[in-house]
Amino acid sequence: MALLEIKNLHARIAEDGTEILRGVDLTVNAGEVHAIMGPNGSGKSTLSYVLAGKEDYEVTEGEVLFNGENILEMGPDERAVAGMFLAFQYPIEIPGVATMTFLKAALNAQRKARGLGELPTPDFMKLVREKANKMNITPDMLKRPLNVGFSGGEKKRSEILQMELLEPTLCVLDETDSGLDIDALKVVSDGVNRLRSPERAMVVITHYQRLLDHIVPDIVHVLSAGRIVKTGGPELALELEKNGYADYIGEAA
Ligand code: ADP
Ligand code: MG
Ligand code: MG
Fold first, then answer.
1. Which of 45, 100, 52 is closest to 78 using CA atoms?
2. Which superkingdom (predicted)?
3. pTM of the model
């Protein structure tokens, strides 16, 4: 059974009814890393929001199965607890909640849903500090409100720290490379690569090929006008880097 199976997914903006996803088909197996590339406005972020269960979008047709379960009937929190992790292009800021406190609540909610007890605070602190250190996140940053006043790079590193802590089975990363300088890109990619495993799959959404030099995908898809219009190996990303998206714009129109 595939880890994630998206079949003929259609979704529109709830507010005005504009259809953005127009029949997405995608099958992701455990252990695989897929890249989704595509021109600006093709629906890449919308796909990640629909997978996360964001209310601004309505699914009008199709199915999304995660471990064989229809996630479209699950709320965002249930999806997270089931093992999905979405790292957004614009990570949300939570004023008034220290990063450390947020991480603890997220981890304990997940443990509870899995029938595990809370991690004792000293064990939790040790675990977070260890993982934070690998992401170049200082103890001082952990005391600051989540993402508030964080630089672009700090936000992305804090997303990957959350991911490392929660150990999801499916990670969807939307434009994780945007706004990163080369050093931060390395830290973030190393974090993602540490999480690669036979039980886990990654969907890496990116406009640019650059990230895929660091996180080498098994399969590359091109999303254009709300549909996957081409699928290939890592060489497809290189071809796009060279030729741009001109060949694919309007393909699905
Ligand atoms: P990408 O991530 O590929 O650049 P998006 O999914 O962000 O594309 O956007 C696809 C299209 O849908 C764009 O034309 C964008 O302006 C529009 N769109 C997405 N979400 C909304 C929204 N909540 N309200 C209005 N327009 C939206
Ligand atoms: Mg965009
Ligand atoms: Mg986007």
1. 52
2. Bacteria
3. 0.93
CA distance 50 to 57: 6
Cα(206) to ligand 3 centroid in Å equals 8
Q: How far apart are CA 66 and CA 10, in angstroms?
A: 17
For ligand 1, whether the C-beta of 36 sits within 6 Å is: no
Which ligand 1 atom sits nearest the alpha carbon of residue 42?
3
Which residues place a Cβ less than 5 A from the ion ligand 2?
40
Is the separation of the CB atoms in 8 and 22 below 8 Å? no
Does domain 4-243 fall under CATH 3.30.450.20? My reply is no
Q: How many CB atoms lie within 10 A of CB 61?
A: 14
Question: Per-domain residue ranges for the chain?
Answer: 4-243
56 C-beta closer than 6 A to ligand 1: yes
pLDDT, tens digit, for every residue of 35-63?
Answer: 999 999 999 999 999 999 999 999 999 99
Distance CA 194, CA 114 (A): 23
- Quote the longest CA-to-CA distance of the chain: 56
Q: Which tokens in the block code for residue 62?
A: 């199709």
Least distant ligand from the CA of 89? 3
166-211: per-residue pLDDT in tens? 999 999 999 988 888 888 899 999 999 999 999 999 999 998 888 9
Q: How confident is the model at residue 250 (pLDDT cuts 50, 70, 90)?
A: low
